Amino acid sequence: MSTPIGIPDRGATAGDFAHWRHDALSRRAAELEARDAHYRQLWRRALLKLVLVEWAAVLLMLWSFHTASPTAGTLAFWGALGLGDGGFLFIIVRTWRASEG
């Protein structure tokens, strides 16, 4: 009967298996740390995008109250609402999907 691949032949000590287990656990910990760092980087970038989009929406809203043209004011007002709400949802969903995959 042959031994499975990766398992030492007869004469293996418990220390051999402990060494393999330690290597596997350390590799898994490194993978989890790398994945966690990537996840944090995605959400930090999303936070920056959210701040920029919401800042642009607020400026557009303020400009809509300041302008003298009713048509331009109305367009800027609804554009600010669309940019603020739509941008927020788009960024959150896109970041969530990127962090899951």
Concise structural overview:
This protein has about 100 residues and is an all-alpha fold. It is built from 2 helices and no strands.
Number of strands: 0
Sketch the topology as an H/E string, one letter per element: HH
Low-confidence stretches: none
Shape, per Cα inertia axes:
rod-shaped
Question: CA-to-CA gap between the ends?
Answer: 42 Å
What is the residue-mean pLDDT, rounded to a whole number? 86
Number of helices: 2
Q: Major β-sheet, in short?
A: none
State which percent range the strand residues make up: under 5%
Which structural category do the helix and sheet elements fall into?
mainly alpha
Fraction in helix: over 70%
Report the radius of gyration as a whole number of Å.
Answer: 27 Å
Structural description of this entry:
The structure is a single chain. By secondary structure, this protein is mostly helical. It has 2 helices and no strands. It has a domain at 53-101. The protein has helices at residues 14-66, 70-100.
